[in-house]
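Our preliminary data section would be incomplete without showing what the modeling component actually yields. Below, a chain of 332 amino acids is followed by its predicted structure, encoded as tokens that our downstream tools consume directly.
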Amino acid sequence: MPPAALVGVLVLGAALLVVMPVPAGAQAELQTWLNPEMGKQIPRSDYRFTHYPDQKVEDQETHFKLSEHRASFFVPLYQDTANEWALSAKTLFQDIDTRARFPDAGGRFPSELWDASAGLSYRHKFDNGWIGGLAVTAGSASDEPFNSVDEMYFRAIALLRVPQGERNAWIFTLTYASDEEIFNQVVPVPGIMYAWVPSDSFRTVIGFPFSIVEYKPLESLTLEALYVPVRRVRARVTWQIVQPLRAYVGFDWDHDHFYRADREDKSDKIFYYEKRLTAGLRFDLRHVGFEVSGGYALDRFYYEGESYSDRNDNRIDVGAGPFVVGRVNIRF
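Predicted structure:
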């Protein structure tokens, strides 16, 4: 893959976390969207299972156990050397075993949470090498998905990649996401980033709405760091043991949000925050990959409100503890 293509991979992997929050397995599906090489998209699918065993709920006589299923797929609809159309979809299902109650709003915590969405993307490569793209997504994140329009979200991103020399590029974006704090605006929010690739071993994208760095001090060792304002952080160290087998350790600070169907204030969401220390193994063949990981989740809490400033109200704190993950992805 040429350096310009690697820049594209870095850019979209991070962009997804900003405007189209998707499971890690689905990131690869849309990474192709910004790859300067046109007409080479491939169908792919991903499934990931995560299990959190019972942990004590602070200040309540109950525990909290969670099993999560995430599935996604990506299908090219049409592609040639200058145009690409693609369809993507994802589903998240959380099976929750708890008797926890919201302290202020009252009511039991939902036993199920869902997030299902589908999106359409298009990109075009101009004669001067610039690449323009547009992606739109509609979905629902709730204990009763698609119960009404109040449990739905809508997201869109427009992007322009302007090459600067052989390796570098400016990236301009316009972003709208009805369910994201930073993008919940009537007018799309502009962004600007610079992709700098001084060598094959160092690549970075700096700016808004994200910054990402990848450094390979050795051929078999990769260091990655990602920051998305305001509260998304990812850091990972990956070691390639042999060609198909890799081991990694990492740290993540991330969050999800859902709309409770029977909430009184329609602007409220159930937010979930956690930090994770992770170690795992990946085994990737040409058409299929497997991953097993585990770690320790801490600073776990839920709350229902409009924004992060409401995090101390109507809050449910879940004890820290281990988790395990199994994942499989298929590329056709």
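Residues 1-32 have pLDDT under 50 and may be disordered. The chain has one domain: 3-331. Preliminary results of this kind motivate Aim 1 of the renewal.
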